[in-house]
Amino acid sequence: MVSEFSSLGSNLVIVLPGRSQTGGFSAGNAITNTTRDLTIDDAQALQRASAIVRVAPLTVGTSEISFSGKLREVLIAGTTAQYIQVRNMTMGQGRFLADGDWRTGAAEAVIGAKVREEVFGVEPALGQLVRIGDRRFRIVGVLAASGQGLGMNTDELVIVPVSLAQAMFNSNTLFRILIEANGREAIAAAKTQATEIIRLRHEGEQDVTVITQDAVLATFDRLLGALTLGVAASPPSDSPTPAFW
Q1: Which one of 31, 56, 130, 153 is CB 3.0 to 4.6 Å from 83, fit for a cystine?
Q2: For residue 97, which of 17, 159, 40, 26 has the smallest C-alpha distance?
Q3: Distance (Å, rounded) from C-alpha 170 to C-alpha 152?
Q4: Helix (H), strand (E), coil (C) string for 154-181
Q5: pLDDT range class, residue 245, cuts 50, 70, 90
Q6: Phi, psi (degrees; rounded to nearest 5) at 113
């Protein structure tokens, strides 16, 4: 688990909607009581913080991708061009989402390695038009195979522009906002600045939880011994770990 968290990205800070009841992070309070939703405007406002170098809004849901008579249910991640750098992901083929207006976005998609294999087989995926939900998208990239990573298997992921994902799911809210701090020494400042910017935008309410990658790592590191003993004493489980991003 610690290794998987370490691979999420460098200098990562995560903004979750809702305020943690304990004021700290734990697996139990990662899902918080939401009083106000996070929006694209909130994410864009974070870009002005001096300690923050990149911001990637994220909305998620499930839909179906279809191509040439093949149909498959997939996890959809709606985000922006900076997501690949914030999450430290690697392209296998093609390119990631183009940089542009977060509120429009071209009808293009990046797919995981398993989606490419199961939907396209031996056919090339790049440049193909597919239907995702009730919309058509052109495949512009395929992620390098990476496998399961704490709640999200990127090999089975389809990534589209955040505005189109929100339209697809009939929602204007975000699941998370991912932030890359401007260096390890700036992580604490990035957390403080993000918390204050969102507080001011939300009429003075402290209604979000901002966690750092280091805090998550420290928590899971403390639990690692107990988890290892539990796994050794129990049969394997297919239950997914909660996704924080």
Answers
A1: 56
A2: 159
A3: 22
A4: HHHEEEEEHHHHHHHCCCCCECEEEEEE
A5: low
A6: -65, -40
**Would you call 132 helix, strand, or coil by DSSP?**
strand
Q: Measure the CA–CA gap between 158 and 108, rounded to whole angstroms.
A: 10
Tokens 């966690």, residue located? 211
- With H, G, I as helix, E, B as strand and everything else as coil, classify residue 126: coil
* 95, pLDDT greater than 90: yes
User: How far is 14 from 183, CA to CA, in rounded Å?
Assistant: 15
Choose among 10, 34, 41: nearest CA to 166: 41
Residue type present at position 224: L
203-to-125, 199, 206, 232, 242 alpha-carbon distances in Å: 46, 7, 9, 49, 30
Q: What gap in Å lies between CA 204 and CA 66, rounded to an integer?
A: 45
5 vs 13, residue with greater confidence = 13
Mean residue pLDDT of the chain comes to 82
Q: 103-149 pLDDT, tens per residue?
A: 988 999 999 999 999 999 999 999 999 999 999 999 999 999 986 55
